[in-house]
Specification:
Number of domains: 1
Shape: globular
Strand content: under 5%
CATH class: Mainly Alpha
Helix content: 55-70%
Mean pLDDT: 90
Oligomer: single chain
Order of helices and strands: HHHHHHHHHHHHHHH
Structural class: mainly alpha
Number of helices: 15
CATH topology: Ribonucleotide Reductase, subunit A
Radius of gyration: 21 Å
Length: 362
């Protein structure tokens, strides 16, 4: 069934077209590679995978709690609104809420696909073009995986969230190549890593957990790519140019912070959206989740040198300033390891099934 029939609400931006300006840069020096980026490119080549094969799509989702996530993950959990709901209504919120979140992952991945193709076109060094080309394939695979999860398992989808839509427009429209890195590689994908992690670590459904684990393994490389490239580039800029980047980062972070309040979701399931958003904004669940969301962004922003008063003030107001002490490199390495552990578990499960089938045949 076509996606348009899966959407839980009308899609206003059908055939959304963004008037993006981008220079096309050819590079005639083919031996100007930096070791750090070429190593990442080599890893990107070796870690290509097939979503149809690496993921066990024979697994189903629970209709009452598709990804088997704890109710504490729902931002209105524990509120007077939640306590008034009956079991059928809670089941509906679980299904719609999880479909809404996976839908935003899907739309964000298409945005990343477009932005990475733009990086190949724009970026001035050959090593970055090499690496970005591997990421284009990664992002296409992520769109495939999340689309299949929504279409064949949830059979439900949501349009792009307004805050994500605004941010993607800003990233794609800006003609400066480093804004594409900053917006997509550092901010959007940094936040996505933390959101994926919650499902990977807390979902009791192996299908949902594995999709997010494998996507995270790729995303860890993507964030590392942006981190390495911008860490080299930003020290070369004037203070005025760095201030412009900080202003963009601050605005983007506020947009992403509000993105998970999901006003359109509450409206669609028949709840008072203003009441739900008011409770969610300061709930312990959202406060904790917000801290996890920015755990990948704050230390990376500091590492690339965008650490002036504006960005520090914004992070202080968001309550995430303490995250600056985290080591993003260690977290990215752990993301890659966890995906390998999922591979081992799947291989064992497939081997056990084969043994049972062989015994039955004998």
């Amino acid at each position: 069934m076509a996606t348009e029939y899966r959407y839980a609400m009308p899609v206003e931006q059908t055939n959304w077209v963004i008037d993006g300006k981008a220079d096309t840069t050819f590079r005639w020096e083919y031996e100007d590679g930096r070791d750090s980026l070429l190593t990442l490119y080599d890893k990107g080549k070796k870690q290509q995978w097939d979503a149809a094969d690496r993921i066990d799509w024979s697994q189903d989702l629970d209709p009452e709690n598709p990804m088997l996530l704890p109710d504490q993950a729902i931002s209105i959990f524990g509120s007077p609104i939640w306590e008034k709901l009956n079991q059928k209504e809670r089941n509906n919120i679980r299904r719609h809420g999880q479909a809404w979140q996976i839908s935003q992952f899907l739309h964000g991945e298409q945005g990343a696909l477009i932005c990475t193709a733009k990086i190949v076109q724009q970026v001035p060094s050959i090593d970055a073009k090499f690496y970005a080309a591997t990421q284009v394939m990664d992002e296409a695979r992520h769109v495939e995986a999340f689309s299949r999860l929504l279409h064949s398992k949830f059979e439900l989808a949501y349009p792009i969230n307004p805050q994500l839509k605004i941010l993607l427009e800003q990233i794609i429209r800006d003609p400066r190549w480093d804004f594409t890195y900053l917006g997509m590689q550092v901010l959007v994908e940094g936040l996505a890593l933390a959101a994926f992690q919650r499902i990977r670590d807390f979902s009791q459904n192996k299908l949902a957990a594995s999709v997010n684990a494998y996507v995270m393994q790729d995303e860890a490389r993507h964030v590392a790519f942006g981190r390495l490239a911008l860490r080299d580039y930003y020290p070369q800029l004037t203070q005025h140019e760095r201030d412009e980047r900080e202003e963009f980062a601050v605005e983007a972070c506020w947009l992403m912070r509000d993105r998970f309040l999901a006003e359109e979701l509450w409206e669609n399931v028949g709840l008072d959206a203003k009441e739900c958003v008011a409770y969610s904004r300061d709930s312990s669940t959202m406060t904790h989740f917000r801290g996890r969301l920015f755990s990948r962004i704050v230390p990376t922003i500091k590492d690339i040198g965008l650490w002036g008063p504006k960005i520090q003030d914004a992070f202080t107001k968001m309550g995430v300033m303490d995250l600056a002490q985290l080591d993003s490199g260690i977290m990215l390495a752990q993301d890659a390891k966890v995906a390998d552990d999922f591979d081992k578990e799947l291989a064992k499960r497939r081997a056990d099934i084969e043994k049972v089938a062989q015994a039955a045949a004998d």
